[in-house]
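The following block was generated as part of the benchmark described in Methods. Ligand: nickel (II) ion.
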Amino acid sequence: MAPTKAVVADDHLALPAGGKNTPLTNTIPISNVQTDIYGLEIWEGTLPIIDLGGIHGPRRSDTIKQLGHACQHYGGFMLKNHGISERLLNDIMSKAREFFHLPEEERMKLYSPDPTSLIRLATGFKDDNQNVFVSRESLKFHCHPIENYVNLWPTNPPSYREVVSEYCVAAKRAEITLLEAVFEGLGMERKSIDQILDNHGQYASLNYYPTCDKSNLGLTFGLRGHTDPTILTMLLPDEVSGLEILQDGDWVPVKPIPNTLIVHVGDVLQGLSNCRYKSLLHRVIVNSEKERLSIASYCYPSNDTQMGPPKELIDDDHPLIYKDYTYEEFYTTMWKQRLPDASRLDSFKVSAA
Ligand code: OGA
Ligand code: NI
């Protein structure tokens, strides 16, 4: 059921930007895991596997250290024991699939070219300049606090609002736990952490990558290489491969692990950390046999949050790289410049004209 209405150029290149901690059945084949020099378990040579369950007990400081290594040396990680139940992961994926299998005219009721819409369907499109087709269809929406937005969400498929609300709340809880730990690991003071988390927003996207005709595979991407304009992005992939990350100059596939999220460092964390952590360049490729879905939850600060690195992260060994700027300024500049990656941050460098 490929989306056919390619409307305006609209992909991430131009994007403006429950329950208790029940361990899940992680079916991670040991043979696919190696250990690196920091003691991190690495999934198929790509990203470290972090157990968020460790954050609540005696392994807290080790887990925080592991998160720091993962962000610094890999730009992301696979996250297990994140506290979102297996039942809910299956429910949100089924609901997203049901949505994208609705007739096109039903989905298109949510279409909007306006990036500031509180909910909008974005369709695949052809980029004539580069002669490529970007095939992702996505339903993007704000979701925190839920009660401000839920009435804008579709009522078709049935139970959409209930399932998506439940997932967003659970994902938000995992995100806050994760961000607290990442900020603490960076050495940020409580005041600086609160300044960001108190007004933290949440924006999510259901992503659909249709199968691609064999003859067009060479010219089609799910998403072109980009970094996310977020603090972190938490991605739930289905079982179909397609996500690739740039590592040492090569695009390498990140194979999904059941019940495990994929987390990327975004541009905002690169700025906040004064470049200790770099945002991860990633893309999505498509195939001719299986459609693919993913659910992304984008963590970002409120519009007026100051995004320069906190003073406690600046010293003689780490001279200030970025000036203070608000998320709103970052977001507006990103839309004007339409850059695909963290070079969006360059105009906020202390050294910029
Ligand atoms: C994104 C993204 C990857 C995927 O939504 O920004 O990069 O696997 N998604 O869908
Ligand atoms: Ni992305």
